[in-house]
Amino acid sequence: IALRPELKEEAQYFTSLVNGGILTPNEAREALRYKKDEDEESDTLRIPANIAGSAGDPSEGGKPKENGNTKT
After folding, report:
1. Tell me: the pLDDT tens digits for 18-59?
2. Among 17, 34, 64, 72, which is most buried by a count of CB atoms within 10 Å?
3. pTM for the complete prediction?
């Protein structure tokens, strides 16, 4: 079908949207005309690690204290 992009390109497109936190996995599945995945995480946006950060506690990390001591 001439109007449908190549499947590989389409898969890469939706993978980047899901992994970039733009679509949920189920939104991508719906766009591809697949059945909804019943796993509740499939309705949740994925937050990329480079945006979310690695600190488990928001008070962790950041600029070191003036005296060079990083612990409170």
Report:
1. 999 999 999 999 999 999 999 999 999 998 877 765 555 656
2. 17
3. 0.62
Residues 70 and 62: their CA atoms lie apart, in Å, by 9
Sequence letter at residue 64: P
C-beta separation of 67 from 39 below 8 A: no
In single-letter form, the type of residue at position 65 comes to K
Query: Torsions phi, psi of 30, nearest 5?
Result: -65, -45
CB count within 10 Å of CB 26 equals 20
Of 10, 8, 3, 62, the closest CA to residue 33 belongs to: 10
The domain locations on the chain are 10-43
Residue where the block lists tokens 């979310």: 52
